[in-house]
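Sanity check

After download, print the first record. It should look like this:
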Amino acid sequence: NDDGKTAAVLARKNNHHAIADEIERANQATTTPTPPAWKKTCLHNAAENGKTDIVDILLQTAPASSHADHAHWISDFIDAKKYNDKTAAALAREKNHIAIADKIERAKQSTAATTPPPVEKLTIQSGDRKSSPPKVLQEAVVPTAHATVHATRTAAAPPSVDALTTLLADLGKQKKLVYDADQDTDVIMSYRTDIEHGSGDGIGLQLCEGIARVLKDAGHEPFHGHMVPAGSNWQKIWFSEMPAAKVAIVMFSPAFFKSEACVRELSKICITPNLQDRIIPVFIGPVDIASDFLGNEKPQIKKARFIRTTISGNSLPDPRYGFFQDNWTANTRELLRRVAEFKST
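Expected structure tokens:
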């Protein structure tokens, strides 16, 4: 509507979550490359009034098909001019909503290229946390989407077996970070050791340690539970370090949501005032956040809905383009940029 609220947003504000879910599912199925006029008005209003959540929802309507569709989406939506012949990004900057303006411009850049062809299978590997080559664990079908209410993704080609093996081997050679009680944690991390529940693949921990190393080398102070020396109570230390952090990085995988400890960490992050709007979900495995991903019991459905609402709009990578480890260099660069942006605001 002209007040900047979508039907789904209005439904959620009035606790009609089932209706909102249906609207969002319908939106995912929409493939029209040119947004209707109300959607343009909504984006401009939300940008001008600093409504980040609504901007996030609207930017998720980017088509995941051809280059031509992306070109239409950019020209008819992102670059559309309303309100004194100004774009949504220009209106946001005029009102000093710099983060929103940057978000809109990044969406334009990220959708300008042709979407890569879909990939049906991804080889998931396992191995110890050292430099020995991981063995093939299983071949799993990659679903068409693995994140929030974003548009259905068209996955970029995952790394080859050799590329993934090399990445994990390189990460295994890096010096592991060790907890230092004298350092002030500014990035709290939550992860599950495996990507696939019960597989013993160890990839989740390897990727978490690799990201922590990247953060540390960039001047940040990350913390995750595996940094705690053996024999210490890592959970007690984790929950004592978390409140002071400025950014939270959560490693999403199928195994993560099978762990009560991981869900408890995420739930605590979601209700911590200085973190609840600074959560970066890093997708390292297929997770359908739009589903009842915690289970079918009423308390689980409610908790999943709360988590979904809190984390919506900031996933890395874009849910249409595979998993974080598929493009390690580009995704770590973007992660560093987001962490720096969050810490500066």
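If your output differs, re-run the checksum step. Summary of this record's structure: Strands lie at 121-126, 135-141, 187-190, 222-223, 247-252, 279-283.
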